[in-house]
Amino acid sequence: MRLTFLGATNTVTGSKFLLSIDNKKILIDCGLFQGIKELRQRNWTKFPIEPHLIDSVIVTHAHIDHSGYLPVLVKNGFTGNVYCSNATKELCSILLPDSGYLQEEEAKFANKHGYSKHKPAQPLYTRADAEHCLLQFRALEFRKNYKIAEETHISLIPAGHILGASFIQVKHHGTTVLFSGDLGRPHDPIMYPPSVMQAADYLILESTYGNRLHKKINPVDELCEIINRTAERGGTVVIPAFAVGRAQHLLYIMYELKKSKRIPDLPIYLDSPMAKDATDIFRKYTDLHRLNEDLSQKVCEIATYVNSKEESQAIDLKTEPKVIISASGMLEGGRVLHHIRVFVQDPNNTIVFAGYQASGTRGAEVISGKESIKIFGETIPVRAKVEVLSNMSAHADYEEILDWLRHFNHHPRKVFITHGEPEAALSLKEKIEEQYKWPCVIPDYLHSEVLS
Fold this sequence. Notes:
This protein is an alpha/beta fold and 452 residues long.
């Protein structure tokens, strides 16, 4: 076996790992690069391997940094199957077409207003491209072994994080390779904890929070204070949120706060058709999370769902205090940009970040204290209050990662630290080597290694 790292090296985006087994080539995850320009340009460059040479793709979960390059791969010649869990398949059927649609809309807007350097601006892929790639998806059950090549079996194991998220375990001639994808948290209020794993010969491990601990604060209390302070000023709370996972968690918090009457009875808007569809899937798969059918229904009914562009625009004209939850979570696209453009300029309002902000994204710029940001080619001053919820991440922090590793009774021959900024990856490497004495490697982009 040979493992080649085609993404998620010294960054939290673009997850792609090529596992070559004899004459078969399997791609684990197929994500988009996001953030700084140098990374985003990789989405447009020639793929390191001819797509038609790849036999199959296995997707750990639906987030775009793990699935969002699939339409390009298919458009450029990949004809194999895309394997994932049932919930991931359904979520990708929402996320990928939406990603294509947003890219088409952004290209149209750029051409209309002339702010792109490219004449004309083109989308990386279209909604039609994304819908076409979905025809190659095949859903697998959790914890079952599937033969995908001679003497090679894969299994999907629940990883927490978001609905349908999986560890990918590959076994070939007695050697086990385990891909963590994104590792969930043990005490998430909605998702079950990541499955206990006890053995792997090689472990590919995420390190998003490899140098950080989540604060021991209840995000319900944190958000309660923010909403009340903003409402007292007559302001609006805007929460950029990932449509899958984070939006549903926020709805749960809003439900808890309203049920206990800890916040005023102000309107809550979920302005993301994709998040609405994802919430419907969340209601369908109650066996994959902690909320029963009745509670799931109540949580989902706490918000007003915004469908059309006209309804979305109308929210911005309402002057009363309110909460707007909208995608995307890193301010890299979607309807939230229109809300940010309006509300970020008023000091009475609050922008609340509820998830990780990759380096180079607008979200990271706002959190860093930049006085202005660019949206649709226009420079917008940042005058609103900016808050970061410190304990809402769906990624395990370094203590939680180390605790998950504690269950391994057959320790890996090597751990590859991925999906983290350089400081986070290095910090986690040092912690694992110090505590467990396991050899760890931080691979560079296109690094390749034989797994013997």
